[in-house]
Amino acid sequence: MEPGVGLALQSRAAGFVSDRRRSALYGGEGRARIGSWRVADPAAIPAKAAVRAGGSKPVAPLRAKKSSGGHGTLHNSVDEALLLKRKSEEVLFYLNGRCIYLVGMMGSGKSTVGKIMSEVLGYSFFDSDKLVEQAVGIPSVAQIFKVHSEAFFRDNESSVLRDLSSMRRLVVATGGGAVIRPVNWKHMKKGLSVWLDVPLEALARRIAKVGTASRPLLDQPSGDPYTMAFSKLSMLAEKRGDAYANADVRVSLEEIASKQGHDDVSKLTPTDIAIESLHKIESFVIEHTVDNPVGDSQADSHVQRIQTL
């Protein structure tokens, strides 16, 4: 086993063939599970005790909730849930078990949207940052950076994505910086990658509201939280913008808001974003050789393009 994170995978049992696609939508087939993880520092730190890293529990089914908005809000919630379900049924047929990888800047909602998508597709959900934390035995990415280094985290992140890429029927929320390594794209290109493109101003507001302590690349000892977050996010976006743009699908929150008549992306719900993501995925797979999963040759070609950036 090469250095990094090793997985005892039970992946193929979670796959499904074409005549089972419909029955698998809501739990008809067993979902992929990750077994024990064995972690070793690439610099030869002894292997640590195995850590169980099972898939997250499915999020609660979407239910319409009546709020202070009254019957209008209830009606909109029902319509939204039904639209999401219909779209997931259409997309599931074309996916053929391929994994979905959500990429985007920190704070872009990858985990929230990913959980919704995994639930309606009957997929399992994984957050790659959480898997690295569990594998290393350190409870946060910020602490991993502090105790070890960013390079140590990136090595383990790549190992996580490598092993997840051998599985089927997963929605994976990746870390904001996963796109910077070409090898990660090679792994993700075995499935479908979706970029959640959120305006920097909206990201900065979100992050300033909850704080930057859990985000090592943004954390600052002093200064106005919004100004500091926006400045750092702008720098990261400049470095990563071309890499994000290489995702198979781009989901622009500004475009969704415009179509709905909003002037602020914060008015969008996670379900709005999940529906648009599924719509874009469906359009992509219909256009690109639907019956053939993405192969290694396509992934290698994509990596070569990334390396020229």
TrEMBL record:
CC annotations in GO: chloroplast; cytosol
Main location: plastid
Catalytic activity: shikimate + ATP = 3-phosphoshikimate + ADP + H(+)
Pathway listed: Metabolic intermediate biosynthesis; chorismate biosynthesis; chorismate from D-erythrose 4-phosphate and phosphoenolpyruvate: step 5/7
EC number(s) stated in the UniProt entry for this protein: 2.7.1.71
UniProt record, GO biological process: amino acid biosynthetic process; aromatic amino acid family biosynthetic process; shikimate metabolic process
Localization: Plastid, Chloroplast
Alphabetized PROSITE patterns for the sequence: SHIKIMATE_KINASE
InterPro entries for the chain: Shikimate/glucono_kinase, Shikimate_kinase/TSH1, Shikimate_kinase_CS
A molecular function (GO) term: shikimate kinase activity
Keyword Transit peptide included in the entry's annotation: yes
Keyword Heme: no
Protein keywords: Amino-acid biosynthesis, Aromatic amino acid biosynthesis, ATP-binding, Chloroplast, Kinase, Magnesium, Metal-binding, Nucleotide-binding, Plastid, Transferase, Transit peptide
Names of required cofactors: Mg(2+)
Pfam families linked: SKI (PF01202)
Family: Belongs to the shikimate kinase family.
Job of this protein: Catalyzes the specific phosphorylation of the 3-hydroxyl group of shikimic acid using ATP as a cosubstrate.
Name of the protein in its database record: shikimate kinase
Organism from which the protein derives: Zizania palustris (Northern wild rice)
